[in-house]
Amino acid sequence: THPETLLCGLVDAGLVRFMEARSMYSLTTEGRERHGELLAERRQASPVDIAAAYERFLDLNTAFKDLCTAWQLRNGEQNDHSDAEYDAACIARLQTLNADARDVIGHMATALGRLARYVGRLHTAGSEVAAGNTNRFTGVMCESFHDIWMELHEDLILLQGIDRAEEGSF
Predict the structure, then answer these.
(1) CA atoms within 13 A on the CB side of 16
(2) What is the DSSP string of 19-78?
(3) In DSSP terms, which residues pair with 114 in a beta bridge?
(4) Residue 78 forms beta bridges with which residues?
(5) Which pLDDT band holds residue 69 (cuts at 50, 70, 90)?
(6) What does residue 99 show for φ and ψ, rounded to 5 degrees?
């Protein structure tokens, strides 16, 4: 089924709403409740063992947050991206992180196949950054590496029933 067809059905069911101003979808309260029910059913029927790989993901997440800070700030000031060598080093770090993430996500995808889609999406965003479309590094609402990474992280948190505040992984 095409994603738009799925989304329209979820909107019609009152589980998702379209936020026109941001051109994105979000779960309604009912949608979050239903999602929780579906996750509980999934864990009961076939537990997904991704906890060990998730610990490795958290290490990469820390490195990614540090990298985003390095990309956006330099010496405590906003990075104006006038130093091509500095930016190239950040982009190289992004490529290395992406390769490391591919292995971790690939391992998790052996337990839950749908996670594999993040590998391709992150690769595309990383390739765009390397090709000069640097907005795809940390840009907002442009399928940036950062946007995809945050979506993946939220997916993994929800999948495992982790309380983000308790875990402290913001």
Answers:
(1) 16
(2) ETTTTEEEE-HHHHHHHHHHHHHHHHHS----HHHHHHHHHHHHHHHHHHHHHHEETTEE
(3) none
(4) 73
(5) very high
(6) -65, -45
